[in-house]
UniProtKB/TrEMBL annotation:
PROSITE patterns: RIESKE (PS51296)
UniProt keyword annotations, A-Z: 2Fe-2S, Iron, Iron-sulfur, Metal-binding
Originating species: Fuscibacter oryzae
Protein name, UniProt field: Rieske 2Fe-2S domain-containing protein
Cofactor: [2Fe-2S] cluster
Record domain Rieske: where: 5-101
Length: 103
């Protein structure tokens, strides 16, 4: 059964940036868009299993630091090769300056 888990404080992430969040055996990225919205997605690239936390956030996507695959952080959709498998996204809520994800 999914539960809400605190991932970080809102001020831990600058606009148009991301951070890594590990919970149990799972790795996530938490993204703060330039519009000040928060998103959560699997944190490992589906192509070469590289951590996306060192990737670049730009124009609604995260670019993998290894082979430049990109993923839409709102939907998890693989947008550019070499990645062709979408990533899972997770519900996010913001309460009292904290970012929570449903895992």
């Amino acid at each position: 059964m999914p539960t809400w888990t605190r991932a970080c404080a809102t001020n831990d992430i600058d606009p148009d940036d991301l951070i890594r969040f590990d919970h149990g055996a799972q790795t996530f990225v938490i993204v703060r868009s330039e519009d000040d919205e928060f998103y959560a997605m699997d944190g490992i690239c589906s192509h070469e299993h590289v951590h996306l936390c060192d990737g670049l956030v730009m124009e609604g996507t995260i670019e993998c630091p290894k082979h430049n695959a990109t993923f839409d952080y709102r939907s998890g959709e693989a947008k550019r090769a070499p990645a062709c498998i979408n990533l899972k996204t997770f519900p996010v809520r913001v309460e009292n300056g904290d970012v929570w994800i449903e895992v």
